[in-house]
Amino acid sequence: MVLVSNAQFARPALSHQAEKMREEHHEADIVVIGGGIFGCAVAWALGNQGRSVILLEKSLKEPDRIVGELLQPGGVQALETLGLRDCLEEIDAVKVLGYDVIYYGEEVRIPYPANARDAAQDAEKSHTDEMRGTKRKRPEGRSFHHGRFIQRLRQKALSNPNVSVVEATATELIRCSFTSQILGVQATRNGEQDSYFAGLTIAADGYASKFRKEFRDDTPIAKSKFWGLELIDADLPMPYHGHVILGDGAPILLYQIGTHETRALVDIPENLPSASVQAGGVKGHLRNVVVPNLPKQVQSSFLAAVERDRLRSMPNSWLPPTTNRAPGFLILGDAMNMRHPLTGGGMTVAFNDVVLLAELLSPENVPNLEDTKTVLKQMKSFHWRRKNLTSVINILAQALYSLFAADDAQLKALQMGCFQYFKLGGNCIDGPVGLLGGIIRQPFVLFYHFFAVALYAMWIYITSGNPLLLPIRMVSSVAVFWKACVVIFPYIFSELRS
């Protein structure tokens, strides 16, 4: 299904009166707070349905961030559905074919699997001469500079005749004094206070949302940070692949974001002794711990980046999703749900959420967005229908990070078991990377592979030691399986709550 393939196919602009209402009276069907990944996409999608949209963004300058730079195949597909695929053009984006996992110097390639949904289409065409003897193309992701991609999304939103983009900082929600329904938002524009009104206000103001705390008691949990460097002309072991490097310490990610640029992300947990001031701080950790674990051909460009770049970090946050219940107001995007960025699933979740939201809030399903009862009913459906994809990506990101940042014997056994599982090839690769890439959207497939890894790790643990200690190791292996349960079940339970 394609919601719209290009701007020229969007619904015609609303009447001049609607545009006048946006520009002069600051009234619209929808006010979106935040011109990032989710905000731009949802403004575009709802504007294409004939809704009048005001998009507020505090700064329209190109962002300079170290995350949001890898879009999985499932995200590329959602981008195509939304008619935003051309936003990947003219930004020097690099195709991503899969991953190269390097475990203490040993590597295994895990390419994206063939897309099952494409397979059905190919089957229909297989009888034609043009399809005989051809191989179906595997899905691809894209990596890029975050800021360039954001600017393309903003340009797209600006091109929509039903969307007005305003550079302003949202400060406070406007409530009805009788019903507590949200009527819009106050904002600062050019140093002056202004008000924007709509039947529905959407907060998509990111991981540090200023509005989330008004509607949720819980807060994002961050136990580590990603520290980012930009390597120039790095010689990666496997071009067009993301690299996950496992060794001493937490995981390291490498992926190309331009013709000459490669992003390095180093996970550093809180209060890590090797990153303490006494040990030379973060730069000391990068030189003394990270560099020895890198492939030899990458070390020189990494060290050059350590000396050249200003160190920047982003918290690796976990925030489980909840149902939106406030009349007239929705919290979405990273403001509503976050997971560890290890698997690069954030933008894939965001774009797929926009596809689903546009369907549920379409004029056919919700003729009037001021009908808060119907909107909240649709949002309850949204909460549960998104689970097929988002619960997979959320749980996988948190569980994989626990394994890849292993800090005890049981987690180390699971980490090794995971790598050895990948080495088996076939479905032991296609399943996990299909889940990671947003291609396979079945939570039970995730549970199958996770516990298959746990059982395989137990087998390796039992059989790799002294044969005379086999009975003892069999008993001890139960702790490995127990640790796997401790890792994954809290995240499963968090996805089951409303």
Total domain count: 3
Terminal CA distance reads 28 Å
Low-confidence runs: 1-10, 116-134
Structural class: alpha/beta
Q: Major beta sheet, specifics?
A: 7 strands, mixed
CATH topology of the largest domain: FAD/NAD(P)-binding domain
**Morphology:** globular
- Let me know the number of strands: 17
Specify Rg, calculated over alpha carbons: 24 Å
CATH superfamily annotation of the largest domain = FAD/NAD(P)-binding domain
CATH-defined architecture of the largest domain? 3-Layer(bba) Sandwich
The overall average pLDDT, rounded, is: 91
Strand fraction equals 15-25%
Structural features, described:
Its EC number is 1.14.14.17. The chain has 498 residues and is of the alpha/beta class. The protein has three domains: 215 residues, FAD/NAD(P)-binding domain, CATH 3.50.50.60; 97 residues; 91 residues, no CATH class. It is built from 14 helices and 17 strands. Strands 1, 2, 8, 9, 10, 11 and 17 form a seven-stranded mixed β-sheet that branches. A seven-stranded mixed β-sheet has the order 6-5-13-14-15-12-16, with helices on both faces. Strand 5 and strand 6 form a beta hairpin. The chain is globular. The N terminus is likely disordered.
Which key phrases capture this entry?
seven-stranded mixed β-sheet, 3 domains, FAD/NAD(P)-binding domain, alpha/beta, 498 residues, 14 helices, single chain
